[in-house]
Amino acid sequence: MKRKSDLLRENPLFHSLFESSRVGQIILDDQCRPVSVNRRMYEFFDLNPNQKTDMPFGQIFHCSSFGASCPACGIDRNDRCALMHAIKIIQKGGMIDNNTMQFSFCREGREEIKWFQLNGSSVTCRNRTYILLIFADITDLKQREKRLKELLSLDLATGTTNKYGLLKSIKRRVRADNEQQYSLCMIDFDNFKQLNDLYGHLFGDKVLEKFSDIAHRHIRKGDILGRYGGEEFVFIFNSIDEKQAFQILKRINTELTQHFSKTTKQPVTFSAGIVAVDGGCQAMSYKELLGRADQLLYEAKNLGRSRAMGQQEGGLL
């Protein structure tokens, strides 16, 4: 087998282009073993460019799956390796349609992820077939894209999920085919217009911001808090029944009221409608779910402020 010294260094121009490329490049043999790796590829992973290449790809770049779900490169028990899938397509002379690849690797005992734009081609040289893979690191781009999506789904005034993101989450929750129970709670501030008229709209904004701050300290990871519109918000509490949801809302409402009790004559409170969903119950659409919560909220408002109404549970918050 001709190695790097034979395939590259006998052609100084090609060797120089290969090593100085601003994208990562790897040459594999017909057994998917690296024959040559350029400096840029090593830089992506903070590795020594002078290390040996006579090891499997996964071992060289500390692939998280190497030795676990993949006992060796090219042998993927779960058939989920994006790199090997791309290589097989290239070997057959095909083009990679979705050439964005996520690569998980271990660095100093912790797992990290990089994203690459992957291209490649099959090359025949002296009656042997090789595969040239080209890696463009797009990790920063992917991270900015993720952050932008997060910002697009946020209500900037309160730091909660906006209505678009909220409805998307509710639809996903409704479609989930499992037996897990959850509670959806729609809340609306009591006499909010009067607060704005008495103390100004800036004060109203402060109330919503403080509510968001308090609520985020009481909900758990995986729960959802979103702004439905104006001073209406929606909670989704996972694995919680109606009674438990009522108690969480009561704690949030109590803390909110106490915070503003010394600065306002009118109490700062909210009312709520609670719909508990059991995995064994007949499924509701997301519109039916929100409609039922809104109806219960309306009933709570009719009974007086600072109240919650559920299908079983109800009372003063």
Description of the molecule:
By secondary structure, the chain is of the alpha+beta class. It contains 11 helices and 13 strands. It has helices at residues 4-7, 12-20, 39-44, 57-60, 82-91, 139-152, 163-175, 192-199, 201-218, 242-260, 286-303; strands spanning 24-28, 34-37, 100-107, 110-125, 128-137, 154-155, 160-161, 182-189, 224-229, 232-238, 270-277, 307-310, 314-316. It has a 6-stranded mixed β-sheet with strand order 9-10-8-11-12-13, with helices on both faces. It has a 5-stranded antiparallel β-sheet with strand order 2-1-5-4-3. β6 and β7 form a beta hairpin. The chain is elongated, with a radius of gyration of 29 Å.
Distance between the termini: 77 Å
Could you name the CATH topology of the largest domain? Alpha-Beta Plaits
In CATH, the homologous superfamily of the largest domain goes by the name: Reverse transcriptase/Diguanylate cyclase domain
Helix content: 25-40%
- Please provide the ordered H/E string of secondary-structure elements: HHEEHHHEEEHEEHEHHEEHEHEE
- The proportion of strand residues reads 25-35%
Mean pLDDT: 86
Strand pairing plus helix content: what structural class?
A: alpha+beta
By DSSP, the count of extended strands is 13
**What is the overall shape?**
elongated
How many helices in DSSP terms?
Answer: 11
**Order of strands side by side in the largest beta sheet?**
9-10-8-11-12-13
CATH class of the largest domain: Alpha Beta
Task: Report a brief summary of the structure.
This protein has 317 residues and is of the alpha+beta class. It is built from eleven helices and 13 strands.
